[in-house]
Amino acid sequence: xxxxxxxxxxxxxxxxxxxxxxxxxxxxxxxxxxxxxxxxxxxxxxxxxxxxxxxxxxxxxxxxxxxxxxxxxxxxxxxxxxxxxxxxxxxxxxxxxxxxxxx
Length: 103
What we know:
This protein is mostly helical. It is built from six helices and two strands; from the N terminus they run H-H-E-H-H-H-E-H. The chain has helices at about 5-25, 40-55, 65, 70-75, 75-80, 90-100; strands at about 60-65, 85-90. The longest helix is centred in the N-terminal third of the chain and has 23 residues, at about 5-25.
C-alpha cells in the first residue's frame, strides 16, 4: 500500500471517528428522554481526540507532516500556524476546526 493511499485511509478513518462522535452526541434516547445537549467540554474532548490521533509522536503538537493526516488542516497549515513556529498547538488546532466548520 503506497504512503499516499495509507495517508488517505488514515484521514478517512480519523474523520469517520470524529463524525461518529458527533453522531453519538445527537443520538435521541428511545425512551423519549431529551437528548443530551453538546457542551464545550464534549466538543473539547472530540477535538482533543482528533488532535491526539494526528499527533503521531505524542509530543503535544502537530508538525506539517502530522497535519497531513487531516487534509483540511494540512492545506491551511501556514494560515493556522499563527506564531509561525512550524507546528500547531492544540489551541491553534481547535481554532482551525472552528474555521473549517464555517467554510
